[in-house]
Amino acid sequence: MAFQLAPLNDLILNQEIDLLVVSCTLNHFDALDDLYPAATQDMLQMCITDAGFTGKHQQILTIRRPPDSQIKQVLYNGLGASSELNPYSCKQHITKLMPDIKSAKAAHIHWVLPDELVENVRLRQIFVLEILSELYHFDRYKTKGVKPNSPTITFYVAPHLYADNWLDSLVHIQSGLKLSRDLSNQAPNDCTPATFWEKAQDLAQQYPSISAEALFADDLNTLGMGAYYAVGQGSAAPSIMTLMHYQGLPQTASPPVVLVGKGVTFDTGGISIKGADGMENMRYDMCGAAVVLGVMQALAALELPINVIGVAAGVENMPDGKAYRPGDILTSLSGQTIEVMSTDAEGRLVLCDALTYIGRYNPAYVIDIATLTGAAITSLGSVASLLVANDQGLANQLIAAGTETDDKVWQMPLWPEYYSAIDSPFADMQNSGQNSPGAITAGCFLAKFTEQYRWAHLDIAGSAFTYGKGNSATGRPVQMLIQFLQNLAATNQ
Ligand code: BES
Ligand code: MN
Ligand code: ZN
Predict the structure, then answer these.
(1) How much is the pLDDT for 252?
(2) Residues, CB within 5 angstroms of ligand 3 (ion)
(3) Helix and strand tally (H, E) in the chain?
(4) 96 catalytic, yes or no?
(5) Contact predicate 98/130, CB 8 Å
(6) Does residue 148 have a pLDDT over 80?
(7) Binding site, residues?
């Protein structure tokens, strides 16, 4: 796929064009009027009048082969009144429009964007990334049939909105989203903890700003990461914790932001085994790690002036003779002991040791990203990632970045009343509560390992993938995290 930006006066309309998409706001469908040959212009004007096309929200008008031109198809589409433009209306619009665009099967799409949209930095990002996201397809395992084409798109904007190359940075964000979605959609027999380590090495090869290292299962054990290590005991695929260092500033300049992703490449529940129904979706239990890898790639492509450490905490949760069991008491790297109530509450066991380990980097902020609880889905559905934090300043920055990108985040409280849910009669805590609010309880658990630094936890069980048809990873919240890091880099400078 290739995407480029061009000033509107570069659009030559007497050439062969498969698909010309003209997005316009209400009563502003005249951007091309001076560019068409006269006969073409007359016919288009007639069609527009006959169809009553005004640029109303979600209005679509298709015109095939206008005279005196070599244009196969013109697709006028309305965004509605410019005063009513918002993230939701933009996304709705793209969802409605894309089937027509895909069915045109054009190799090169010429797409004219309205000034009112392009002038709004936030909305144009949401609009363009939604288009690129709709064009995403995953066919790694298909050997038959015609693969969908990946069109080239040239976006045309008014010359005065062309100045900086704003599309390039969106394409970099898109590349991170794609990496994240591709990894997430990979089958669980084809995506193990080693996959993250391999991908991290690829990134390190590709970008001098990234270096990669790994802690292998034996290392986890000898270091004393007893909770993380226990979760992987039942799997034939050894656990690996992959660390990526992105250096966008000189070594000593600023303490890093650390991102820790849950990378459970398959979650059977372990001995506390899950029901068979829908278990295949537990391939997505590594979306947190995939998000971290995607963010690292986008960061390097964007060359953001900030230091970030990304951790993919890879492990597989299987039942086996060697598997850990309910009743086991684990000693975490922090020294705190944990009574296992459910081997299906495995994500927090992996994360707690990873979170303790990264304390050595003296982080500015730590954010973990995890498909941690079904309760996050029950609470917020697929609309928002669920946030808890021990620092309100950090929480506010994440919420703001979520609003800016429409990659939404919603905060839950970590009030002291909630902590008793994980009291244990045997150990310092247990790994799950009973009849307690699941997403908050998981947050309380992690909070006991993150007191040394400013920390936020994003439960993405609802936002990272959607139910229904397969291959449904969304890459969320890559966009929000990149925005957060961009905002932070801007204040650092
Ligand atoms: N990976 C699951 C959470 C999950 C569920 C993610 C559905 C995506 C979709 C997690 O490991 C889990 O099993 N959580 C349990 C915790 C419980 C045992 C305390 C849950 O949410 O039921
Ligand atoms: Mn589980
Ligand atoms: Zn899990």
Answers:
(1) 67
(2) 264, 267, 285, 347
(3) 14, 19
(4) no
(5) no
(6) no
(7) 262, 267, 285, 344, 346
